[in-house]
Amino acid sequence: MLDPQALIESFGTLAVLGSALILFIETATILGSFLPGDSLIFILGITLSTTLDFPIWLAVPIIIGSAIAGSQVGYWTGKKLGPAVLKRRKRNFLLNEENIAKSHAIIDKYGPRAIVLARFIPVLRALVPLFVGVMGMDSKKYFKYNVIGALLWGGGLLILGWGLGNVPVVKEHVELWIIGFVVLSSLPLPFEIARDYLKRKKAKKLLDSQN
């Protein structure tokens, strides 16, 4: 994965637009999964509050917009090309019956929440929109949850970094904060899985007690 700090510095005064382009590519294509996402947004927020002369009120909608647009491209790619790919005898290593079945199971289990949760998981940010498109989810319904996810992920992380940017302990230990943030950003899905497990365990215990 590329160094997000180095990327932001290389963009100079165009850091917001450059970061938005990277986020678009990362969320729109599987090939862009190697690009930084969470850490890039977080560090951009810190940079906006310290050294970059760019208004936060303008940066937020730009970042959110790029995240929405990228996932919409992934969704429409799956919706338009997915069925045709699946009809071929030689399947794509990603678009195959097994992965589609797994995606169906995830969406059936977690519902539209999976679209929002996937925002916080590398690779799934690009895979889920693609698979949801292949599965034929209603476009209006997908767009609704795409926007919610982009607001929480793009807007939330950017504002968090911006708010913490002038805190001395953050400025002095940026690398540690980034590592910690990357770990925390991967927790929503495990938490959701744990919540579902406890819910099923409680239901089973209740059923056993009734028998």
Low-confidence stretches: none
Determine the strand fraction and express it as a percent band: under 5%
In DSSP terms (H or I, runs of 4 or more residues), the helix count works out at: 11
Largest sheet: none
What is the distance, rounded to the nearest whole angstrom, between the alpha carbons of the first and last residues? 53 Å
Overall number of strands? 0
DSSP helix fraction: over 70%
The total number of structural domains is 1
Query: What is the overall shape?
Result: globular
Give an overview of the whole structure.
The model has no long low-confidence stretch (mean pLDDT 81). This protein starts with a helix and ends with a helix. It is mainly alpha-helical and 211 residues long. The protein has one domain (4-210). The longest helix is centred in the middle third of the chain and has 32 residues, at 56-87. It contains eleven helices and no strands. Helix 3 packs across helix 8 (139-164) and helix 4 runs antiparallel to helix 8 (139-164).
